[in-house]
């Protein structure tokens, strides 16, 4: 099993250090053409449109364009979130195409599809010239099966256009290895290095581990099974998985041809989602949208139940042994297997309303496999165990435990609001939060430090270590 020590991965689950956890909050979403892709909220479905002559009726380019437009319309109606248009077959053994010919095929299709739908479009190409023409024709993203490593001009084209990059790791032609995740991680690192060098912003990068590109069937399966390790290592980047109709599925089904791989594809999509895929790239959009919806519901928003989600919990106390209560709450969390990864100092604030003792507050980052509602249930149990009883609203309490953030997710139910409301107004939350979560706060768009500067620090003082 892949266990790079810098990740602190352990056999009983993921123990992401706080430093990495903070990174986890860097790119909570991507907006393309006014559409928000909120990573972690659900799985997004990308429909594949092939502008290759053999994919359509074959009656000349005009026919191809019309067929592609009809396909795009149908995919949008079927619930696709994104369309990927390619003019060069990337099948194993497919002939390399002259970029000029690829441009002639793909540009008219992109123009026509752009005029038909408002969905984000990516061009599936590894050639900078094709990408440049496709972006000018209305595509907003480049899906490069060589992750910027084939054409040295590709990164500049993507950066200059402000386009989204989908960078795939391609194992074809590389030395055989059994360290699937290790090879993909190294490939991603190279793609990300090139992207950074050319100024492609982190939050406009999606990574694809490259199912079916240079791996044996068993290694392809290994890739999906171990996706969590990749996902953890590359936490800030959403992952795209393309298993649709691929030969590994045919292989498992005893040589099923492409047109008999629908159910196999459905299983692979469901399990990709269970392993943490953010986007699935598919041919059969109508069917796979349903598969994705049901998978999302079963696996809890793209996360396996044994995967630990980074959470941030605020603690407050103004009754009894205040500091002792905070420490007891942290110990209780640990006891209940909510692994605390970082803790702030203790801060003291004047109470609101004023007719009660001053509050001590702290914030911890932790990880949990519990769902948000189960975590809330646990926090209430701990509050009760530490002597909290129903009191008047905002009255004195020995302990108050609130969930500030749950991964990158937004929760809005009658009993739970995440991110917790009023974080930005509360200096007693922001001061300790700034100590443990240095990055931009998920969904709030500012760092805790900046928000604290705006909220002001009157009546707030550092009290002690937790
Ligand atoms: P407060 O924390 O505002 O002083 P309480 O601790 O009495 O108030 O909580 C009141 C209710 O707030 C809880 O029963 C819970 O259902 C709800 N709540 C909503 N969002 C959250 C959250 N993110 N964390 C904890 N409780 C929350
Ligand atoms: Mg509370």
User: How many discrete structural domains?
Assistant: 2
| Structural category | alpha/beta
Small molecules in complex: adenosine-5'-diphosphate, magnesium ion
Query: Stretches where pLDDT falls below 50 for ≥5 residues?
Result: 1-26, 55-61, 301-306
CATH class of the largest domain: Alpha Beta
- CATH architecture label name of the largest domain: Alpha-Beta Barrel
CATH homology superfamily name of the largest domain? Dihydropteroate synthase-like
End-to-end distance, in Å?
A: 36 Å
With strands numbered from the N-terminus, the spatial order across the biggest sheet is 10-9-8-7-6-5-12-11
Radius of gyration: 25 Å
Which term fits the overall shape? elongated
> Tell me about the biggest sheet?
8 strands, parallel
Helix share bin: 25-40%
User: Total number of β-strand segments?
Assistant: 20
Number of helical runs?
15
Task: Walk me through what this model shows.
This protein has 466 residues and is of the alpha/beta class. It has two domains: 9-302, Dihydropteroate synthase-like (TIM Barrel, Alpha-Beta Barrel); 309-465, 7,8-Dihydro-6-hydroxymethylpterin-pyrophosphokinase HPPK (Alpha-Beta Plaits). It is 38% helix and 20% strand. It has 15 helices and 20 strands. The strands form five sheets. The protein has an eight-stranded parallel sheet. Strands 13, 14, 15, 16, 17 and 20 form a six-stranded antiparallel sheet that branches. A hairpin with a 2-residue loop joins strand 1 and strand 2 (13-14). The longest helix is centred in the first third of the chain and has 18 residues, at 60-77. The two termini are 36 Å apart. Residues 1-26, 55-61 and 301-306 have low confidence and may be disordered. The structure holds adenosine-5'-diphosphate and magnesium ion (MG).
């Amino acid at each position: 099993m892949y266990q790079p020590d810098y990740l602190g991965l352990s056999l009983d689950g993921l123990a992401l250090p706080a430093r990495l956890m903070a990174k986890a909050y860097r790119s909570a979403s991507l907006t393309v053409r006014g559409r928000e892709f909120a990573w972690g909220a659900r799985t997004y479905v990308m429909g594949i449109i092939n502008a290759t002559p053999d994919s359509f009726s074959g009656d000349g380019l005009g026919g191809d364009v019309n067929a592609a437009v009809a396909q795009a319309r149908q995919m949008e109606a079927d619930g696709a979130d994104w369309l990927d248009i390619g003019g060069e077959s990337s099948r194993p053994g497919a002939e390399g195409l002259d970029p000029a010919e690829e441009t002639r095929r793909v540009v008219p299709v992109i123009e026509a599809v752009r005029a038909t739908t408002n969905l984000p479009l990516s061009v599936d190409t590894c050639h900078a010239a094709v990408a440049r023409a496709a972006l000018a024709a209305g595509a907003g993203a480049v899906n490069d099966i060589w992750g910027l490593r084939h054409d040295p001009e590709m990164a500049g084209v993507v950066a200059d256009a402000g386009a989204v990059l989908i960078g795939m790791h391609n194992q074809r032609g590389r030395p055989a290895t059994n360290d699937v995740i290790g090879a993909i991680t190294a490939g991603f690192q190279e793609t990300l290095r090139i992207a950074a060098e050319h100024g492609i912003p982190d939050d406009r990068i999606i990574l694809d581990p490259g199912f079916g590109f240079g791996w044996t069937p068993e290694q392809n399966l290994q890739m999906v099974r171990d996706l969590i390790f990749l996902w953890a290592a590359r936490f800030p980047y959403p992952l795209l998985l393309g298993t649709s109709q691929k030969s590994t599925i045919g292989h498992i089904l005893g040589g099923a041809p492409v047109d008999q791989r629908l159910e196999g594809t459905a299983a692979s999509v469901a399990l990709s989602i269970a392993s943490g895929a953010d986007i699935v790239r598919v041919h059969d959009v109508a069917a796979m949208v349903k598969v994705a919806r049901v998978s999302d519901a079963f696996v809890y928003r793209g996360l396996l139940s044994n995967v630990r989600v980074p959470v941030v919990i605020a603690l407050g106390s103004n009754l009894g042994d205040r500091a002792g209560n905070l420490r007891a709450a942290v110990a209780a969390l640990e006891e209940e297997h909510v692994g605390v990864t970082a803790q702030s100092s203790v801060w003291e604030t004047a109470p609101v309303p004023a007719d009660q003792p001053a509050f001590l507050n702290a914030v911890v980052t932790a990880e949990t496999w519990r769902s948000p509602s189960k975590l809330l249930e646990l926090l209430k149990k701990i509050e009760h165990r530490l002597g909290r009883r129903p009191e008047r609203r905002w009255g004195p309490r020995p302990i108050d435990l609130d969930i500030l953030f749950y991964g990158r997710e937004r929760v809005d139910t009658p009993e739970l609001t995440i991110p917790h409301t009023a974080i930005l107004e509360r200096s007693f939350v922001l001061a300790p939060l700034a100590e443990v979560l240095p990055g931009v706060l998920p969904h709030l768009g500012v760092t805790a430090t900046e928000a604290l500067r705006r909220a002001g620090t009157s009546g707030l003082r550092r009290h002690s270590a937790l």
